[in-house]
Amino acid sequence: MNDFAIVGAGVIGMMLARELAQADATVALIDKGECARESSWAGGGIVSPLYPWRYSTPVTQLATWSQSSYLHLSQDLLEETGLDPELRQRGMYMVAVDDEEDALQWAQQHHRPMMRVDAQHLYNREPNFAPGHTSALWMPEVSSIRNPRLGAALKQSVVLNPNITVHEHSEVTGLLSDGQRVLGVKTPRVEIKAAHTIVTSGAWTGELLKRFDVSLPVEPVKGQMMVFNAPVGLVNRVVLMGGRYVIPRNDGRILVGSTLEYEGFDKQTTDVAFTSLRDTAIGIIPELANYDVEHHWAGLRPGSPEGIPFIGEVPEWQGLSVNAGHFRNGLVLAPASTRLHADLLLGRDPVIDPQPYQLAGRMN
């Protein structure tokens, strides 16, 4: 029997498996598809909430802890696997922000580096940015990470770990239970027994739990993005304007995102979104009109009330817990969410107060 079975091998599931395995626990990591191929792959990789001052304190607490840990995580993964997640510590500009004063007050209250800068500061660093702006908000410590490569590095890390067994293409069809105690999961090929089962299935978490008469308000929210094949240096850092953003990669590619659509589990891209995203990109960086869109895709975020994730035990069930509902900030909040959850599962002092993320009182 495994100590833990984790259902869902995205960034959350794989980071949690690593945390538990590093404490010498045995872990079965199960996914209906391949590791890190859903929202973990589809997102942009900004290691900060967009407009972070507009989020509640529980999200800020997780984000602050996570942001400081990514440097060490990316270095550890590179040493373990030889795969570079491409963490870029270049900062983020936010332009044409209506509530600048709220932002600056938030930054002062939470001791986050943020300042209002003039046009010279902005255009010296981003000379290809759309002309005519006189100021911006600047967060110098914001990073971005190339999330498909982060997913690949995490997958290699868990595959190499002798305490973790990875089961890809293994859809969970039921729980093994004795009364209200969960003893593991059923898949079409095998039963996987564990002392504790954790659901980290992203946008599919609510649907999975419904099968077991558990109602959790996690729903899919589609986001469409695209990437331009552009030269290195056209954009140097994350730029956010009008609720959308451009993100440069080390090889010059530039991501633009994203839409916010409540259309169930539909992951189809649309011509309307293609045009809107391309117009957004050119509105931020006019020179992008001269470069091709290389790829346009969609993913499903795990929407939740106020974007506060659910982390902890499922009421009325023993041996069953959840780590899901991170909405637009799964990658941002993942290190803190999984460390906190590992602390709870292993009986350690939690790094963050767990109360705001508990399921009791927040379920439908």
UniProtKB/TrEMBL annotation:
One of its GO terms (biological process) is thiamine diphosphate biosynthetic process. Transmembrane segments: none annotated. It comes from the Bacteria. InterPro entries: FAD-dep_OxRdtase, FAD/NAD-bd_sf, Gly_oxidase_ThiO. Pathway: Cofactor biosynthesis; thiamine diphosphate biosynthesis. One of its GO terms (cellular component) is cytoplasm. It is an enzyme of class 1 (oxidoreductase). Keywords: Oxidoreductase, Thiamine biosynthesis. Its EC number is 1.4.3.19. GO terms for molecular function: flavin adenine dinucleotide binding; glycine oxidase activity. Pfam families: DAO. Residues 3-344 form the FAD dependent oxidoreductase domain. The keyword Oxidoreductase applies. This is Glycine oxidase ThiO. It comes from Neptunomonas marina. The gene is thiO.
